[in-house]
Amino acid sequence: MNTQIAREAAASARSHPIASLLTIVTIIAMVTTVMLTTGRSAATGQTILDSIASPEGRAIRIQASPAAHLTSDVITSISTIQGIQWAGAFTPALDATNQANPDGNRLPLRQLYATSYSELGIPTSPSDDLAWASPQAMTLLGLLDKAGAITVAAGPTYGIAGQLIVPAYLAGYQPLLVIPHSNQDPPQPVTTIIIIAASPNLITPVSQAVLSVLPIDDPSTVTIETSAQMVALRAVIEGQLSASSRSLILSILAITIALIGVLQYALVMMQRKDYGRRRALGATRGFIITLILTQTTILALIGITLALVISATILLINHNPLPDARFTAAIAILATTAALIAAATPAIVASHRDPATELRVP
């Protein structure tokens, strides 16, 4: 934007404060309305979509009865399937107590075989004679120093190696107490398998692929739970948000263009003597059009800035999520474009008026 034209456009806007203020108010009304309606809905919808796309929303859970005869080596087979972010298998739980307090709380202790242990805060090569406990399990066992040992009823004793990080998809197994194993260890019977698909769209194909590699003779011995319904909900939400957003924004856009067009035409008529004088002094039609569009751009940017501050303040006060940067930038660009479209016709009209006629205007 040429500095000289920008200064002249700003001076022209200041010379007619009422019309300029009305243009700014119109832009503020448009942007604020969109941000508080479509923007808020989009932000809320995105929060829902994010939760669906989270690892917990992409979880596939398989429960096997003892009759299925599944063993921990299924993790090796499952790990070869494309589209899996993480997989783990639990053995049946055994009661365990704090070695220093055998009459204390009894918690379920499970052997864990997984494709990766980093999500749980466990070293890459865990020791199969050490247990790991979640903060909740530590508290219930009375291991306040995050150290000690646990004893399995009528069984061995395991030292506590450290504290687990419990991801959301394992929260249902709290208080979590596990002994991690390498997949090279001798196979053990497992009753629970948890798989995290790499994306929501892969839940169904991954589920089918996993079932195909499970060595089971009777399908009734296993049950599988997926978030396929959540994936369907994601598609519905995305479709509804897109349709409602387009309809509302187009309606507001049409009203805004009409209002700014009227305001800009009135502003042009009030300044027609000035434009006539410029044309008589040699200003080109392109210069007049650029001047008017620059003036409109300055007013639009002022209105957009104020509108974003106002709408963000209202959303934060009401504890609503803020639209993301892409949505905000898109609305700002759309509002500026709408203002320029509205100002284009008055600008063209002003550039084509006869200078001699305009100079005779009292």
Gyration radius, rounded:
33 Å
Summarize model confidence as the mean pLDDT.
81
Distance between the termini: 33 Å
The DSSP helix count reads: 10
Estimate percent helicity.
40-55%
Shape, per Cα inertia axes:
elongated
Instruction: Name the poorly predicted regions.
Output: none
The figure for the number of domains is: 2
Major sheet details = 6 strands, mixed, barrel
Element order: H for helix, E for strand: HHEHEEEEHEEEEHEHHHHH
From the helix content, strand content and strand pairing, which structural class follows? alpha+beta
Describe the overall structure.
It is a single chain. This protein folds into two domains: 3-52 and 233-359, no CATH class; 70-215, no CATH class. 52% of the residues lie in helices and 15% in strands. The protein has helices at 3-15, 17-53, 74-78, 135-141, 203-213, 228-270, 272-280, 285-317, 325-351, 355-359; strands spanning 59-64, 84-90, 94-98, 107-114, 130-133, 149-152, 157-163, 177-181, 192-197, 222-225. β6 and β7 form a beta hairpin. α2 (17-53) packs antiparallel against α9 and α8 (285-317) packs antiparallel against α9. The relative contact order is 0.19.
Tag the structure with descriptive keywords.
6-stranded mixed barrel; 2 domains; 10 strands; alpha+beta; elongated; about 350 residues
Condensed summary:
The chain has 362 residues and is an alpha+beta fold. It has helices at residues 3-15, 17-53, 74-78, 135-141, 203-213, 228-270, 272-280, 285-317, 325-351, 355-359; strands at 59-64, 84-90, 94-98, 107-114, 130-133, 149-152, 157-163, 177-181, 192-197, 222-225. The protein starts with a helix and ends with a helix.
